[in-house]
Amino acid sequence: MPGENKLTKLLNIGYPIIQGGMAGISESKLVSAVSNSNGLGTIGAGLMPASWLEQEIVKTRQLTEKPFAVNLFMQNPKVEEIVKTIIKNKVSIVFIGGGNPMLVMPYLKNAGIITIPVVPSPRLAKKMEDSGADAVVVEGIESGGHLGPNTTFCLIPQTAKLVEKIPVIAAGGIFDGKTAAMAMDAGADGVQIGTRFLAASECVVSESYKQRILDASADDIEVVLAFTGHPLRVIKNKWAEDMKKLEAKNVFPEELNAGKIAGSLGGENVDNIPLLAGLCSASIKEIKSCREIIEEIAESLKK
Fold this sequence. Notes:
The chain is 38% helix and 16% strand. The protein has helices spanning 6-11, 28-36, 50-63, 79-88, 105-110, 122-130, 152-162, 177-185, 195-198, 207-215, 238-249, 258-261, 290-302, and strands spanning 17-19, 41-44, 68-73, 93-97, 114-119, 136-139, 145-146, 168-171, 190-193, 221-224, 232-235, 275-276. The strands form two sheets. An eight-stranded parallel sheet has the order 1-9-8-6-5-4-3-2. Strands 7, 10, 11 and 12 form a four-stranded antiparallel sheet that branches. The longest helix has 14 residues, at 50-63. It is globular, with a radius of gyration of 18 Å.
């Protein structure tokens, strides 16, 4: 397989290509399609209840025999139930984001689960290595949804110098063969991709949402809600304009949490929902299947 390395061996996957765990969006159909294409599909638990997660784990196992993961969002108020569900259902790989991974890592590790924190800095990546993580994702500001302060292609070489024992996975702004190859050349052992899979034929978001991604230019993508401490990168729409008005008033209602509202992203009306998307949206101009997306990237990794 192209790109075979310590990450593919750790995760038992064909290509070092991971589908990012998008809250309420990456469910069994998308996840299984990615895993069946020799990448790693990831269920995005977000702020969904444990019952939803268990249902999606069961569905995914019916659709693929390949490995898949769960993304654990630490801001979920029921995180303890989510962890118990993950362990009960013998999930083999867990990504942890949106908070302090150390609060749950010991429980996951004790259950024999491959544990991979998502962090925004090389220093935190090194801390995760020292704390027993099996791999680490460093995510740059180019990403969609919640984002960190540093650029992906500065994070990768800096992290690769500090983290020596475990695989480094790059995320943020990676969407095709060229950007994946650049990340690997810069020192990553694999890539995590979210936005490109929003425009996959198997993704459950509406066709209107997908079309907004295809139509987006760089000027259509912006960051909102920075004042909350959890900034979101989105495609401009009425919802984003309303959020900017709230920013001016320094208002932080509960419903602004992206994980909470992600479950409503399947409708055709895309004016009043957050169109979470990364900067790479401006380069995505075609809906493709997960297999087409992954094979195109894998082909570039051969070179």
